[in-house]
């Protein structure tokens, strides 16, 4: 079943000048359409500035598009009333690249992970503490880590806390915006494995935004490439991607091969 459907979305940022917005505001997204099925992961690739994060924000309900629709669980995100919107928000979570700026440095891990629970659930302090402890364990940390502050964790551990916060409300979908890009290879591999485990355990769907084709290929079922605000190529099965003649795909594959000689053969990607 389709969980998310983006229909012909076009978006431009308002001009930052003091003068009124003019017709010359260039479109950052132009007629973008895509869909994510329940329990699947779409890897969204593209060069810097292609519009990936902007599309992510539109999908999260944070950036109202100039035109087009975002349907989440069949509801138009930008047309529903505030009550349904709040319900949809709990089912649609996000993890960003910068794990440090995503958290309040003055809050403990327990407070960070407990925040969405406090906003949406009426748990007693003991119940919330137990729920947070379970979430910490679920992402490979210890319940005892709940009292620590962000600076006491490594980048990989802190990203696990961000993931624990994202899954706290048992959402349907998580937008992962370059969520592993700032981590070293070992942490990257471990977090990708954790994300795959959580996906199976909770039936989650992911929009995995990245410029890293290897990471996208590892985790995604379907792959799309954005170029200049448009979806240049979409492959429902990631294996098709390797055979795509589209120049944007060939260029991504080419840059990966030149950077990582050990991935010279197609077989090693799988
Ligand atoms: N808040 C904003 N106001 C104005 N322009 C913006 C804003 N955010 C992004 N842009 C512009 O929109 C374009 C697309 O940016 P976006 O961050 O969506 O691309 P991206 O593909 O995610 O790039 P990257 O991989 O570098 O993060 C860029 O030209 C960027 O400068």
Describe this structure in words.
Pfam families: ABC_tran. This is Oligopeptide ABC transporter ATP-binding protein. It is a single chain. The chain is of the alpha/beta class and 270 residues long. The chain has one domain (2-11, 26-259): Rossmann fold. Helices cover 37% and strands 22% of the residues. The strands form two sheets. The chain has a six-stranded mixed β-sheet, with helices on both faces. It is globular, with a radius of gyration of 19 Å. Adenosine-5'-triphosphate is lined by residues 13, 28, 46, 48-54, 211.
Task: Outline the secondary-structure elements.
Elements: E1 2-11, E2 29-37, E3 41-46, H1 52-59, E4 67-72, E5 75-76, H2 82-91, E6 92-96, H3 109-120, H4 125-138, H5 155-167, E7 173-177, H6 185-202, E8 205-209, H7 213-219, E9 222-227, E10 230-235, H8 238-243, H9 247-259
Helix pairs in contact: 3-4, 3-5, 4-5, 5-6
